[in-house]
């Protein structure tokens, strides 16, 4: 689509980055790093058969970080003119002059910088007209209504196509960047009437629109999930096995990443302090980081510091092999960067042999969690308490939907008591994990 055309070429972004570095050197900066980016996209939403919104986005920005020795200053602008670039560099230098020296501040070691930028197949522009986007959203929503007469309302079906590109550079000679895309389909519907209404949704997101679920399949999935929740009830307070559906299991891995990331560790605000080389998960858990997978959302040849990324085993047999460190956090901890400035890259939790139905059968009796509410995670202690909804299981089969409950435990205990990981992982994000069965958690109900 036309909205996915960039206003700047990659060469122009590189020229802008080079200008920033030259301006910073002239202003007396001992080191400088910059990011120049541009993004474009289109999102169309249809609700109850009518076009609800058509949104276009086009943005650009430059971030400049300068160092005067170990004094750091940062400034940014969305104006790409040379005058604005000079003013932004000047602002960053001025901030640095009034900042206290930080012995851990500075660019990464030159030897760690990425030397090349291989094509990881991340850029797949979607030639989608507004008319085609509207038609696709219509098909998605219509399929939801056609799935069951119990689907009574819609919060809309959306089609989104996004594309961006960037260049990162620093005064050690590193310069790299690439274009990437993210396209998506989503649908949210309501089933039932009055006090018995239930809302559910489904979505799919991929680099390449050709890999997306069919619009009709997304709509049907949303409807089926909403209808399945009708007749939800409370359950008595108990302590039973809990199965986190794959989309929510990814969140548990996110909790783990947060706890073993440099910022939480050097601030001593993590329940997994000093856990390197220790058993943090059940022995059945292996987690790998694969930054160079072609077409994946978390793929990148370098991190936000320009440091080259590499494959590594993060957890083996439940034992933690490495943290997630940027250059700065590594220096604070007296360690070396792991190439994770900006976050993790394609975490893959090794799958077991069971699909979702197999996990339900294995659980025998307990709770399947399909929705979490609130943000009840204490990263200092590991305490975990979330509002939840899902399904009660008896004799290895789903018996009825459940709502208005709270699940509670401690992440350290939860991680160690994982008894199975499903092979039902979804390919729509940078973390890849199937449904996770935890041996026992507390359920607060009526």
Q: Overview of this structure, please?
A:
The chain has 446 residues and is an alpha+beta fold. Helix content is 24%, strand content 35%. It has nine helices and 17 strands. It has helices at residues 10-26, 82-97, 130-147, 215-228, 246-259, 262-266, 327-333, 356-363, 411-416; strands at 31-47, 50-68, 71-77, 151-170, 175-191, 198-206, 238-244, 287-289, 312-316, 319-320, 347-349, 366-373, 383-394, 397-410, 418-421, 431-432, 436-444. It has a six-stranded antiparallel β-sheet with strand order 3-2-1-4-5-6. It has a five-stranded mixed barrel with strand order 7-12-13-14-17. A hairpin with a 2-residue loop joins strand 2 (50-68) and strand 3. Helix 1 crosses helix 2 and helix 3 (130-147) runs parallel beside helix 4. The radius of gyration is 24 Å and the shape is globular. The protein starts with 9 loop residues before the first helix and ends with a strand. The mean pLDDT is 95.
- DSSP strand count: 17
Uncertain segments are none
Give the fraction of residues assigned to helices.
10-25%
In the sheet with the most strands, the strands line up as 3-2-1-4-5-6
**Residue fraction in strands:** 35-45%
Sequence of secondary-structure elements: HEEEHHEEEHEHHEEEHEHEEEHEEE
How would a textbook summarize the main sheet?
Answer: 6 strands, antiparallel
Radius of gyration: 24 Å
**So what's the overall shape?**
globular
Tally of helical runs: 9
Provide the descriptors you would attach to this structure in a database record.
single chain, 446 residues, alpha+beta, six-stranded antiparallel beta sheet, five-stranded mixed barrel, 9 helices
